[in-house]
Amino acid sequence: MPAALHFDKGLANTIAAETSLSFIDGEKGVLEYVGIDIDSLARQSTFEETTFLLWRRRLPTSGELSAFERELHAHAPLPHGMLDLVRLFPRSAPPMHALRTLVSALALFDAEADDSSPAANERKSMRLIARTPGLIAAFDRHRKGKPILEADPSAGLARDFLRMLNGAEPTAAMAQALDVCLILHADHGLNASTFGARVTIATLSDMYSAMATAVGTLKGPLHGGANEGVMQMLEEIGSIDAVDGYMREKLANKDKVMGFGHRVYKAYDPRATYLKTFAEKIARDTGNERLFEMSKRIESIMHEAVAAKGIYPNVDFYSATTYASLGLDLDLFTCIFAMSRMAGWTGHCIEQLDGNRLIRPHAEYTGPHGVAYTTIDRR
Length: 379
Ligand code: COA
What we know:
The protein is an all-alpha fold. The chain has two domains: 22-223 and 337-353, Citrate Synthase, domain 1 (Orthogonal Bundle); 226-325, CATH 1.10.230.10. It contains 16 helices and three strands. A three-stranded antiparallel sheet has the order 1-2-3. β1 (22-25) and β2 (30-33) form a beta hairpin. Bound molecules: coenzyme A (COA). Coenzyme A binds at residues 226, 254, 256-263, 306, 309, 311, 314, 316.
């Protein structure tokens, strides 16, 4: 290995990019988007405004926000060819496979797919963010044998997603709950899917290819799939009375409890603070107190058992209760994560292209050398 190189498995100790989108201090439990702490954004911003912030590195004036929302929402209706495609999908397909395929297919219906000028890249980013809710809802309606509903460009993305999915207007509280989750998941430093997107765009491929990479990377259970795991655990436990016994066994077996711990945060995940109060409100509003009470009891048992090791609830823990209270199917949770992270992924790709350099690390070869080629008849 040349002297300048060092081996860093998982790149955990390597800085592989510069970014001005989000900042994380895992020891102190801080997450900021462009310097603004995540809690203030979750309480006061919207997903659309947060997207503007991540892309332009500042908050918009009210005129700028209205213009941005108008332009973004105008991109929401799906090309008809996309709907024909959704209808060809097997109804049993896992939604993340469907979403990855559909994000990639959007390129087939975009004349600007290979135009990599900054203006075209921004328009494509808008299309990707505005259309992802419709793609997820369209596939879910298709698999349930229900008619696919078109996007309404006059509505906010969170509210319109719930309408397209359920076929009924959500309450303002439900739309806000989803909007808060979208803000909280929009960006998170150089996480695996963002890194994947940056690697793809750094080859001067296109935004759709980069987003297909990102969705595929997010799909893994070590990345985007943990909130599904939380919900599976809550379903498995079933009732508040069963929590203590379940947790006793988990802790005795030294099993990992889903929704706790984080590679970066060794303090309370700053995204979980507000989400916890919000999850409680939405759970009560929708008659899902049982889920919230179970979650609270799990948190208190975990606090006594592992807080000293820096293990606290992460964003997935209370987003699971929130999504379940919104009536979202378990297998859509990671798709909703993708819908939100699309804001960060696209922002990172545009940032990568500004002063781009191909991302191409090395691998340490561990195989043999000088092996003679054996012809097939002699093997
Ligand atoms: N439940 C119980 N104990 C946990 C735990 C959890 N979820 N996460 C970590 N710990 C314990 C470990 O057993 C270990 O204890 P030990 O020192 O006695 O052996 C200690 O805390 C350190 O854990 P470690 O696995 O080294 O931390 P990590 O940084 O490698 O792992 C995660 C981080 C996220 C992979 C891990 O916490 C985890 O698997 N969590 C559950 C899945 C999850 O919610 N993922 C979503 C992340 S957003």
